[in-house]
Amino acid sequence: MAKKQKKNGGGTPATVALTSAGTAYTLHSYDHDPAAPSYGGEAAEALGVSPARVFKTLVADVDGELTVAVVPVAGQLDLKALAAAVGGKRAAMADPAAAERTTGYVRGGISPLGQRKRLRTVLDDSASDHETICVSAGRRGLEVELTPQDLAVLTGAVLAPIGRA
Predict the structure, then answer these.
(1) Residues with Cβ < 8 Å from 3, sequence gap 6 or more?
(2) What is the pTM of this model?
(3) What is the mean pLDDT of residues 23-35?
(4) Which of 7, 13, 44, 162 has the greatest number of beta carbons closer than 10 A?
(5) Cα(82)–Cα(121) distance, rounded to whole angstroms?
(6) The pairing of beta strand 120-124 with beta strand 158-160
């Protein structure tokens, strides 16, 4: 996989982080429909990629600490499993404004990469079933494809079974 950017993509903190790290990735852009019921589902459909390979970035509050969960768009986040993965007791979805403020991204465009403040990150272990996965590149309508191993290294992620169908 080559470092590749399309003309209308790039320049987000996520792509800057990938380029700075020398990580191979492919950037995919599509026209975001504000009426789409699911950002991740829209990305999978627009890119013609299996929803099992497209991962959404969610921010949760685990015992008072914001934590990033990266799970397949086809499923949901198991909050109890997320808390257990980081040694916590209780997890709840973070306040959207706090998530945006802390990561520097807007909802529907939060990337696990290049966040304003680096947060603990947990990647669903199903990611390792795929050669590459897609995650938000930091803007609605922009996805980055990379290996799950590279994503885990760049984010310091722990792999754990945090997704459910």
Answers:
(1) 18, 19, 23, 24, 25
(2) 0.91
(3) 92
(4) 162
(5) 10
(6) parallel
Q: Out of 5-14, 62-71, 79-88, which region has the weakest mean confidence (pLDDT)?
A: 5-14
**Residue matched to tokens 């299996």:** 50
Q: Average the pLDDT over 136-140 and give the result.
A: 94
Tokens of 152: 């885990």
The two structure tokens encoding residue 144: 């980055």
pLDDT digits (tens, 9 = 90+) for 142-160: 999 999 999 999 999 999 9
The one-letter amino acid code at 95 reads D
> What is the widest separation between alpha-carbon atoms in the chain?
45
Q: What confidence tier does 3 reach under pLDDT thresholds 50, 70, 90? A: very low
* Six-digit token string for 132: 């590459």
125, 160 Cβ separation under 8 angstroms: yes
Q: What share of the chain is helix, strand, coil (3-state, %, to 5)?
A: 30, 30, 40
**Amino acid at the residue 84:** A
Backbone angles phi, psi at 93, to 5 degrees: -60, 140
Contact 69, 113 (CB under 8 A): no
Q: Going by DSSP bridges, is the β-strand pair 91-93/55-62 parallel, antiparallel, or unpaired?
A: antiparallel
Q: Which of 112, 16, 125 is nearest to 78 (CA)?
A: 125
